[in-house]
Design goal:
Layout lengths: L4 E7 L4 E4 L5 E14 L5 E11 H10 L5 E14 L5 E14 L3 H7 L47
Parallel strand pairs: 4-6
Antiparallel strand pairs: 1-3, 1-5, 2-3, 3-4, 5-6
Amino acid sequence: MINRVVLVGRLTRDPELRYTPNGVAVANFGIAVNRPFTNQHGEREADFLNCVVWRKQAENVANYLKKGSLAGIDGRMQSRSFENQEGRRVNVVEVQAESVQFLEPRNVTANRGDSDQSMGGSGNYGFSQEPQRNTSNLNEDPISNDGKPVDISDDDLPF
């Protein structure tokens, strides 16, 4: 069975950090993930998902992310149920985050204001626009198309 979730979106609320009776940190937060298409009216819709993260990652999320922060989540879906205060059975499906990546500097979210930027934002975030290539030994590429056959045994192939 496979249960893997990879999401990139913006937090819909500040993370809520709590601790279990045994002292284990747990943080809850919501994330909005844009759908890759528009609806009949040309509007982009989003899915709103609840996330849970544990231990040191929970403390980091609570300390460094806030409502509007862009984050990458890697984890799994998990369902649970409980009885609420009215005695009704409540079923919950949430993302159990195993890894949370902070995808923009802390000050970018504060500077965004209420503007509606795309999920990628407009900042550089420390990455160059063009990939840097090492051109010093391009002529030494063993797989280059120089007209000669490449000597690779079947044992070296990964398939």
